[in-house]
């Protein structure tokens, strides 16, 4: 059993693909910021009206771009970044689908308080994934390994 793992080519990716990965990380960073602003909106209901409708747009755009372009990164160090970004969307979505209705549709004080504890945690988690991805991207290396 002397199977060798093929070496990953760290430098032969198109610069526009690297730029796109940066943009996608930026969209997720914006989503994390909006999520944190949603927690602040608890005290300023007018902010909730503004941030509520736009909170899902940046990650939705990011995951669509990720799916459209990940094939171009196949076999390169950027492939892990697209996978990381797409998983960020899919891992955070179920939590947000539980938390936002708790916040918007219930008048139960316990649900509202639980939602406002979870919303910042989700925002911080997405922020962590963005930071870890950006650091790996800056180091010209795969993320998540």
Write the layout of secondary structure elements.
Elements: H1 15-40, H2 45-54, H3 57-69, H4 79-105, H5 109-138
Helix pairs in contact: 1-2, 1-3, 1-5, 3-4, 4-5
Explained architecture:
- The protein has one domain (about 15-140).
- About 75% of the residues lie in helices and about 0% in strands.
- The chain has five helices and no strands.
- α1 (about 15-40) runs antiparallel to α3 (about 55-70) and α3 (about 55-70) runs antiparallel to α4.
List keywords for this structure.
145 residues; 5 helices; 0% strand; elongated
- Distance linking N and C termini: 24 Å
Q: Please, how many domains?
A: 1
Q: Please state the structural category.
A: mainly alpha
Q: Would you report the number of β strands?
A: 0
- Beta-sheet strand percentage? under 5%
Low-confidence stretches: none
Q: What's this entry about, in short?
A:
The protein is an all-alpha fold and 145 residues long.
């Amino acid at each position: 059993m002397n199977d060798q793992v093929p070496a990953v080519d760290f430098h032969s990716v198109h610069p526009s693909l690297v730029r796109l990965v940066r943009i996608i990380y930026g969209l997720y960073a914006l989503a994390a910021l909006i999520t944190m602003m949603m927690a602040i909106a608890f005290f300023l209901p007018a902010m909730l009206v503004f941030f509520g409708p736009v909170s899902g747009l940046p990650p939705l755009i990011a995951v669509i771009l990720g799916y459209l372009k990940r094939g171009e990164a196949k076999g390169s160090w950027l492939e892990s970044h697209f996978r990381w970004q797409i998983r960020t969307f899919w891992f955070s979505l179920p939590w947000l689908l539980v938390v936002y209705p708790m916040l918007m549709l219930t008048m139960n004080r316990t649900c509202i308080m639980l939602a406002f504890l979870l919303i910042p945690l989700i925002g911080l988690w997405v922020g962590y994934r963005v930071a870890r991805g950006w650091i790996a991207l800056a180091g010209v290396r795969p993320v998540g390994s």
